[in-house]
C-alpha cells in the first residue's frame, strides 16, 4: 500500500461520518422549517423549469442573453438540489449525520455550481455591455459560437475551481471532532474539523475567493460603468428607461449573489461560526428561488413569452374540451 492509499485508509478508519449543525434544536420548529423549505424548493424547481421551457418554446428568445439565462436557471435547479433534499431529510427525520464521501461530494458540487454562477454572471454582464455599448458589433462579438464558448468556459471554470479546492481537502485527516458548524458540507467548516496542518488550505480558501470573486465583480462593475455611461447619453427618457430595464434583473441578481456571498466567504476562518447559518440559508436555499421571480417580474420579453405559452395552453385545453363534448 503506497503512502497516499495508507493515508486515505487511516483517514476513513477514524471518521466515517460528520454531524451537521441543526438549524434549530426544537423539533416543532424543524417541522415548520421543513414545510417552509419544501415550498421554497418546489417553487425553485417549478420557477426555473418554467423559465427554461418558455425560452425554448419562444423563437424570439433564441439569443445569447436568454441562452445564458437558461444556463442560470439550470444552475439554480442543480444548486438548490445539492443542499435542500438532504436538509429536508434531516429536518423531518431529525438526523443530521452525513457520510464522509457524501460530505465531500456535496461540498464539491456546491462549489462547482457556485463558482460557475459567479463566472456566468460576469459573462451575462459582458453580453449586456456589448449589446448596449456596441450594438452594431453585437451579432459578430456574440455570435452563437462565441456565446457557446463563453457558457462552456463558465462551467469549465467552476469545475476547475472546485476540483482544485477539493483535491487539497482530500489530503486532510479527520480524527477527532466531527460536528460541523453548518447545515451542509462546506469548505470552511470542514477544514476547521481537520486534525492535519491546514495552513495551506486556509491560505487557499482565503486567497482564491478573495481573488476570483473580486475579479469577477470588477468585470461586472466595469461593464455596468460603461453601460450606465452609454445609457446617460441617450437623449430620450423613455429610451434610457427601456435600455436600463434590460439590465435591471441581472443587476438585482448580482447584488443578491455577491451581497450574501461576501458575508459568507470573504471573512477569516477564525471568525467563522454557526451564527452565519441564517445568511447561509438565504444564500444556499432562498437565492435560487428568487432568480426566476426577478426575471419574470422585471423582464417584459419573458413575461410576454410566458403569457403567450399560457394562452396557447388555454386554447389547446378548450379545443380538447370542446372535442370531447362533441363526441
Index terms:
single chain; 327 residues; mainly alpha; two-stranded antiparallel sheet; 78% helix; globular
Structure description:
By secondary structure, the protein is mostly helical. It contains 11 helices and 2 strands. The protein has helices at 3-14, 27-57, 64-93, 100-133, 138-141, 144-169, 187-193, 199-232, 237-265, 277-298, 300-326; strands at residues 17-19, 97-99. Helix 2 (27-57) runs parallel beside helix 10 (277-298) and helix 8 (199-232) runs antiparallel to helix 9. The N and C termini lie far apart (75 Å).
List the helices and strands and how they pair.
Layout: H1 3-14, E1 17-19, H2 27-57, H3 64-93, E2 97-99, H4 100-133, H5 138-141, H6 144-169, H7 187-193, H8 199-232, H9 237-265, H10 277-298, H11 300-326
Antiparallel strand pairs: 1-2
How many β-strands, per DSSP? 2
- Ranges with pLDDT <50 over ≥5 residues? 1-13
What is the mean predicted local confidence, pLDDT? 81
| Biggest sheet descriptor | 2 strands, antiparallel
Task: Write a concise synopsis of the structure shown.
By secondary structure, the protein is mainly alpha-helical.
Amino acid at each position: 500500500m503506497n503512502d497516499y492509499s495508507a493515508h486515505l485508509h487511516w483517514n476513513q478508519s477514524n471518521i466515517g461520518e460528520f454531524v451537521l449543525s441543526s438549524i434549530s434544536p426544537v423539533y416543532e420548529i424543524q417541522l415548520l422549517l421543513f414545510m417552509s423549505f419544501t415550498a421554497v424548493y418546489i417553487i425553485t424547481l417549478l420557477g426555473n423549469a418554467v423559465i427554461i421551457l418558455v425560452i425554448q418554446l419562444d423563437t424570439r428568445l433564441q439569443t445569447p442573453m436568454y441562452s445564458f439565462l437558461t444556463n442560470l436557471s439550470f444552475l439554480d435547479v442543480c444548486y438548490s438540489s445539492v443542499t435542500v433534499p438532504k436538509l429536508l431529510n434531516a429536518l423531518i427525520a431529525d438526523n443530521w449525520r452525513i457520510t464522509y464521501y457524501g460530505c465531500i461530494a456535496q461540498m464539491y458540487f456546491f462549489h462547482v455550481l457556485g463558482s460557475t454562477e459567479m463566472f456566468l454572471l460576469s459573462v451575462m454582464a459582458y453580453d449586456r455591455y456589448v449589446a448596449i455599448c456596441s450594438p452594431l458589433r453585437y451579432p459578430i462579438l456574440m455570435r452563437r459560437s462565441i456565446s457557446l464558448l463563453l457558457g462552456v468556459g463558465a462551467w469549465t471554470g467552476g469545475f476547475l475551481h472546485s476540483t482544485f479546492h477539493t483535491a487539497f481537502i482530500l489530503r486532510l485527516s479527520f480524527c477527532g471532532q466531527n460536528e460541523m458548524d453548518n447545515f451542509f458540507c462546506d469548505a470552511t467548516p470542514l477544514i476547521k474539523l481537520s486534525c492535519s496542518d491546514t495552513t495551506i488550505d486556509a491560505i487557499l480558501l482565503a486567497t482564491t475567493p478573495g481573488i476570483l470573486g473580486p475579479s469577477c465583480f470588477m468585470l461586472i462593475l466595469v461593464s455596468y460603468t460603461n453601460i450606465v455611461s452609454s445609457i446617460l447619453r441617450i437623449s430620450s427618457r423613455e429610451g434610457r428607461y427601456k435600455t436600463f430595464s434590460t439590465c435591471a434583473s441581472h443587476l438585482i441578481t448580482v447584488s443578491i449573489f455577491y451581497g450574501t456571498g461576501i458575508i459568507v466567504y470573504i471573512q477569516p476562518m477564525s471568525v467563522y461560526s454557526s451564527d452565519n447559518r441564517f445568511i447561509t440559508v438565504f444564500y444556499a436555499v432562498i437565492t435560487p428561488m428568487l432568480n426566476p421571480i426577478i426575471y419574470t417580474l422585471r423582464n417584459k420579453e419573458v413575461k410576454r413569452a410566458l403569457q403567450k405559452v399560457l394562452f396557447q395552453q388555454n386554447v389547446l385545453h378548450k379545443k380538447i374540451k370542446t372535442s370531447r363534448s362533441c363526441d
